[in-house]
Amino acid sequence: MGVQIAFFLFSLIAIIGALLVVTTRRLFHSALALVLSFVGVAGLYILLEAEFLAALQILIYVGAIALLILFAIMLTRHLMDPRARAFNEQWWIAALVAGFLFVVLISMILRVQWPVREASVPSDLIENLGSSFVGEFLVPFEVASVLLMAALIGAIIIARER
Amino acid sequence: MEGILFLKLVWLIPLIPLASFWIIVLFANPNKKLSHSIAIGGIALAWILSWGALYEGIKHHVGSGEEAFHLSWNWLPTGLSWFKMGVMVDPLTLAMLFMVPFVCLLIFIYSIGYMHGDPRYSRFFAYISLFACGMLGMVLADNLLMLMIFWEVMGLCSYLLIGFWFEKPSAMRAGLKAFITTRIGDVMMLLGIIYLYSRTGSLTYTEIFKPEVLEKLAHSTVTLPLVGELPVATVIAMLLFGGAVGKSAQFPLHVWLPDAMEGPTPVSALIHAATMVAAGVYLVARSFPLFSVVEHGPQLGLVAFIGAFTAFFASTIAIAQNDIKRVLAYSTISQLGYMIAALGVGAYVAAVFHLITHAFFKALLFLGSGSVIIGTHHEMDMMRMGGLRRRMPITFWTFLMGTLALAGIPPWAGFWSKDEILGHAFHHASELGFLSWPGFVWILGTLAAFLTAFYMGRQVFLTFAGEPRSHHAEEAHETPWVMTIPLIILAFFSTFLGFIGVPHEFPIIGPLLNNPFHHLVGEGFPATPLNFGVMGLSVLMGLSGLALSWVVYGREPLKAGQPDPLSISLGPIYTVLKNKYYIDEFYQATVIRFALWLSETFFKFDDHWVIDPIVDGVGKLGRKLSEVGGLFDLRVVDGIVNGLGKFTSALGGVLRLTQTGKAQNYLLVAVLTVLMLLGLYMVR
Amino acid sequence: MIPLSWYLLVAAALFCIGLYGVLARRNAIGILMGIELMLNAVNLNLVAFWRYINPSDLSGLVFAIFVIAVAAAEAAVGLAIIISIYRNRDTVNVEEVDLMRG
Fold first, then answer.
1. Nearest Cβ partner of A107 from B665, B672, B682?
2. pTM metric for this prediction
3. CA gap C97, B659 in Å, rounded
4. Which of C1, C7, C37 would you mutate first to test chain A, the one with the most A CBs within 10 A?
5. ipTM
C-alpha cells in the first residue's frame, strides 16, 4: 500500500515537473522544473529496486546536467525575456502529435501481455554490476569513456572564446 | 557446212558501221578527213563481208525457213525459255546484202563531194553510218522484234538527217513530219507484232512461219468491232502492213516523203530512195507467209489496192512538179507502190527484183540531181535550169541511163523488173478477170508506166536540154570525180543489172542466163509465164511517154520565163496536181487541227482546269496543314512542355516550403510519419 | 506490486511531454531539456522492463547507465554548440537558425 502511494507521489512529481518544463515561459523556472522531474524519476528508480541507478540519476542528471543547463541559461540570458514568445508556430500540431502518440502508446501498453516474471533482484547487484563493467561490458565501458572524453574536448573547442 | 567464214561473221556486218558512228561521234568529230575515212572504211568493210556472205550463201544454196543460215543467242529470259536474238540469212537476205552495203558505199563516197564545206560534215558521216547499221541490222534480223528495233533506228536517222540543216525551219518541220507520219504506221506495226507474239509466243521467223503455226493463225479468228470476224493471220498481216504504208510512203501516209527532200541529197538517195523506204516492202516480203496463208482474205487485196493506187496517184502528181528532187520523190512513192502492189498479187520475186533494181537507178537519179544542184550552185527549180547537157556531160549521160531504167525501156534494168510485175499481174488477171485485184494492178500499173516515162522525160528535157534559163544554169560546171564516179558505177548497174532476172523463156538471153535471180530468191514460187503482149505494151507505154515528153518539152525547149505548157493544156487539173491534190492541206485542216486541239485540251486539263489546280490545291492544303500543325506544336505541344515545366516549377515552389531550415519542423514530420506507421500497425 | 504497465504509462507520458517540448519550444535550451526528458522516459522504460522481466540479467541496468553517460555527453556538447551559436549569431532562438532553408 505504501508502495503505491510512493509510486503515485513520485509519478506525479515527475510528470508535473515535466509539464512545467515544457510550458513555463521563463527558462530558469523551466530548468528548475527539470530538476524536480529528475528527482521524481529517481524516486521511481528506488521503487524499482534500482537504488544505484537512482543515485546515479541524482548525481549526474541533477548534479551535472541540470547544472550545466542552468549555467548555459545564465550565459545566454539577456536575450530571453518573458515578453518573447516561448513556443513556435507549430506548437498546436506538436501538442496534437504528442497527445496522439500518448494515446497510441497507452493502447499499446495496455493491450500487450507483458511477459512479467516474478523474480527478485539479486542481492549482490552492485558487485555484479561492477564486475560486469569490467567483464561483459568492458568494451562499451571503454567506448563510453572515449565518448566522454570526446565530448569533453569537443565541448571545449566548440564553446571556446575565439 | 564447210567454208562459211563470211556467213559465220554476218552478225558483224551491222556492228561495223555502228562502231564507225561511235568512233566519229566520240573521237573523230573535229577531223573531217578522219571522219569520212572511218565511215567509208566501215561501210566498205561491211560491204566486203556482205558480198563474201552472198558468195557463200549462193555457193551453199542457203534456202529459206528451216534451210536458212541461222545463228541466234539467248537474249532475254522469258519464264521457262529464252527470247532469242540472232541473224538469219536466206535468199531474201542475200538479195538485200547484195544491194544495201554497195549502194551505201557509193553514196558515202559521193557525200565527200556533196557535203564538202558543211560545218557539220563529220556528224553527217556519223549519222549515215548509224543509218547503215540500222538497215543492215534490219535485213539480217531473225525476228520481228529485232527488225522493229533497227526499223526505229532508221526512223531516227531519217529524222536527224532530214533536219540536218536544222537552221531551216522547213527542214525541221519536214523532219518532224516524217517522224510523226511514219509513227502512225509504226504503231500499227507494233500492235501487229504484239498480237502475233501473244498468239504464237515467238517472233523468230523460223518459228512463226512454220506451217502448223501459220495454219493455226489462219484458222483461229478474232471478232473486231465494225469489221466482224477475221482470221488472226489477216489481222496481223494488215497491222504489219500499216507499218509498211508508213515507212514506204504509200497513200495515205505518203505525205512525208516529198517534204523529206529538205535533207541533203545523199540522204534522199540513200534513205528515201534506195533503202529505208524499201524497208516497208522488205517487211511485207519477209512476212509474206502470213499474208498468203489465208486464201481469200482481204489482206492481199488491201495491199494490192494501196500499192496500185499509190503507184498511179503519185505519178500523176510527179508530172506537175518543178523541184528536181520532188519529181524523184513522187517517182519513188510511185515505184514503191509497184513493189507493194506486186506483193499484193503474189508476185514475190518480181517485187524483190524491182526493189533491187529500183535502188540502183533511183539512187543514181537522186545523186545525179544532187550533182546538178551542186553544179548549178544550189538551184533546185527545173524551170530555171536547162542546157546542162554540155556543161555537165557525165551527170547528163548517167542521169539518162537512170531515166531509161526507170521508164522501163529494155535492156535497162527497170524494164525487166517492172515488166515482171505487170506480167504477173496480167497473168492472174487473165485468169480471174480484169475486175480483180490483179487486173486493177495491171491497169493502173500500165498507166503509171506511161506517166512515169513522161515525167522522167520531162525532167531530162527541162534540166539538160535547150538553153540555160537562169544565170546559175549558165555558170554550171561538172562536179568533181568523187561525185561522178559513183554515178558512173550506178549507171553501169542500172543498165546491166536487169539481166540477172531475165525470164527463162526470153529468146536467146533467157536460157543463156537462166534467170539466176529467180533461182536464188524465187524458190517455191512459180516463174511468171512470159507474155510478149504485155511486154510489148509496157515498152510501148515507156516509149510513148518519152515521146510525148519530147513533144512537149524537147522539140522546142522552153525559154526562160516561159510557163510550163502542161499548165496551159491541163489548166485547173495542173493546179490540183501541182498542189498534190491538196492532201497536205486536208490533213492540216482535219487530223492536225484535231491533234492540236486535243493537245491544247489536255494542256488546259493539266495546267488550268484539273491537274495543276489539284496539285496547287494539295500544296496549299499542305501548307495549311503545316500551319495548323505549327500552331498545334506551338500551343499544345509547347503548352504541354512548358506547362510541365511550370508545373514542376510550381510543385518545386510548393515543396520548397517544407524546407524551412528549421529542425523542429523536420522532426515533427518524422514523428508524424512514425505515428502513421504505428497507427497502421495497430489497425492491422 | 505495481503493475509494469503503470511504469510504462508514466514513461510514455514523460516521453510525450518531452516530445512536445522538443517540437514546440523556441529556445534551444528548452529543446534540450525536452530531449533530456525523453531520455529519462526511455531510461525508466528500460529499468522497468529489467525489473519485471529478468532482474538477474544486468544488461538492462547497464544499458540505462550507458544512456545516462551518453546523455551527459550529449548535453555537454549540445550546450557548447548553443553557446557557440549564441556567440556568433546573437540568438538562441532556433527559428532564426534556418540557413538550410530551401
1. B682
2. 0.66
3. 13
4. C37
5. 0.90
